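User: I need a structural model of alpha-L-fucosidase from Chitinophaga eiseniae for a docking pre-check later this week. Nothing fancy, just the predicted C-alpha cells so I can convert them on my end. Input:
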Amino acid sequence: MKRLVLLLWTVCLYPALFAQDMPDMWTKSGGHNAAHPGLKWFTSAKFGLFIHWGLYSKLGGRWKDSSYYGSGEWLMNRAKAPAAEYAEVAKTFNPQGFNAEEWAGIAREAGVKYLVITAKHHEGFSMYDSKVTDFDIVDASPYGKDPMKALAKACRDKGIPFGFYYSQFLDWHEPNGGGNSWDFKTKEKDYQQYYRTKSIPQLKELLTNYGQLGLVWFDMPGGLTPEQTKQMIDSLRLLQPNCLFSSRVGHGLGDYRDFGDSEVPPVPIAGAWESIYTHNDSWGYIQHDLNFKSPKEIIHLLSNVASKGGNLMLNVGPDGDGKWPQYSVDYLKATGKWLQQYGESIYGTTYGLLPAQPWGVTTSKPGKLFLHVWEMPANRQLRLPGVDAHVKSVKILGTHQTLQFQQQPGETTVQLPVTLPDTRNTVLVMEYSGNQSDLSQLRTQTVSSQYPQAEIPTIWAVYNGAAKNKLFTWSHYFGDWKHDNLAYGMITPEDALVFPLDIQDVGDYKIILDYACEKSGASQQGVVTLNGQRLPFLTLFTGEYDSHQPLLFIQHAIGNLHVDKPGKHNLAIKPVAGNKKELFRLRKVILQPVK
Ligand code: GLC
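Assistant: Understood. Predicted C-alpha cells for alpha-L-fucosidase:
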C-alpha cells in the first residue's frame, strides 16, 4: 500500500514540483554594466592574479609577541595597534627583493590574464608614490622608490592588464578614515572629509599616473550615499572610461560582480563576475601559514569557476622583502603548465552546457564542449546525459588523440583510454554541429557506481512546503570565509526536499547526509525515501551557528537503499510528523555505491 501511495505521489507530483519557483540564486546575474567596453577582455580573461602587499607583509602575521592566523592584512586592527606605533613599521620596510619583471614573469608563466595589486589597504599605507600623503612607500620607507610604476610597466610589457586594489573607506591610519575606533572617536569622524582629501585624490592619482588600468578593485564601501558614490564614480570615469570598477564600489554601481571572499556560485551565472580566493588562508603574507592550495586544487577551482561562467582571481601574498612564498611560485607555475596544454578550455569560454557530473565539469565555446575529467570512471565510459547534438569528434585537448564515442537518443558516451595524461584534470574537446541544448541547470543529477561516490548539493533539490535554500557564511581563521548553500526550514513532513536522480547502475547505495545541526534541531526524526524504501534517522547535534565560527558539519551515514532498475528515481528527505524545530541545515546528500 505504502509503495502504491509513493508511486502515485511520484507520478502525480513530480511535474508539479518542477513547476515550482526556482530558489533565488538561479536568477541572480553577474555584471551591472553590460555595455562597458572593458568587459570584453575581462569576461574572456578567466584567470587573474591578486596581490596583497603592504606593511602587514613585513609583519607577517606577528605583532609584539603574538602570532595571528587568518587575514594578515587585518593585523593592525586585530592587535589594535596604535596608529602612530604601527606607522613606525614603514621605517623598516625595505623590499630589496622586489623585482617587477620577475613578478610579471611568474604571472605570465602562471597563465593569468590580469593582475591586481593593493595600492592602499585598510592599514592606510600607500604602496605607491602619492602626493596626497607622506605615509607612502616613497616618503616613509627606506625603500624610497615606487614599485607600482615598475610593476605596471612590466605587466604591460608582458601584455597583462594591470589593476589596483583600493580600500576606499577603511583607513586605520587616518582620524577620519573608516574603522579605527581604538585611536580615534567614531563619533568625531568626518568621512566626507576623508573621501575629499585622501580617497578620491588618491584614486585620481592612480588613474592618472600608471597608464591604462584594466580595473580598480574597490573594497569595503562605506560612508557614502548612492548619489555620492555615483558622483565619485563619474568623476573617476572621466579619467579612464575603459577602466572597470569592481562591485565593491558599493550601491550596485560596479561594472562587474564580485562574489564573497572564497565563494563560487553553485550554478552558472550570466554576465561578468569574479570569484576570489586566497592561496593559503590569508590575503596578506603570514610567515607561519603554509596551507597552500595544491596545483590540483587550483586547477579544479579554476575549471569549476569557468564552468559557472566566471573568472577566478587567485591571491598571492609576497613578504616584506618582496619575495613570493616559494609554494605560490611553484604551484602557480604548475597551473600555468596545465594551462599551456588545456588553456583553450578556460580562456574565452562560457559556462558549460552540462551541470557538474560525477566525473567533473564542462565549459563551452560555440560548437565545442570541453569535458574536464577530474575522476576516471572505473569502466572508462564517460557518459554525457542529454548530449544529443551531432558529435563530430572527441579528442584529448592539445593532442591529435581521438577517442571513440557512441550516441544514443539523449546521451553520448565517450570511451576513455586506459590512462589519462593528467590525473588532475585531462580535458577532452568535443566538437559538434547543430544545436545542443543548455542543460546546465537541469536538476536531474547523475549517480553511478563507476565513481567512489555521488555528492549532490541541496541546490539541486526541489523544495516543498517551508523548505528553503540560502547561502550560509562561516569562517575558519579570521577573515577566512567559507560559503555554501544549505537547505533549511524543514519542520513538517510537507517540507520535503526531493532530489531527481538519474541512477545509472543497479545495486545498493549507502546514503550519507552532510549537515549542520544546532542543539534545538538535534534528536528529531526524519526519513529518506526512495521507491518505497524508507530510511528513518535521528538528527545529531554538531554545533551552534555563528558566522564568525566554523560551521560544523557531520557526514551522517543513515542506511542503505537498493536500486533495482537504472533510470530516473526521486530521493526524498523530510521530517516525520511531530517535530517542533527545523531538522538541520543540509549541505548535500551523498550516495556511495556499496562494494
Ligand atoms: C575583505 C577583507 C580584505 C581583503 C578583501 C579581499 O574585504 O577585508 O582584507 O583584501 O576581502 O577580497
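Before docking, keep this in mind: The mean pLDDT is 94.
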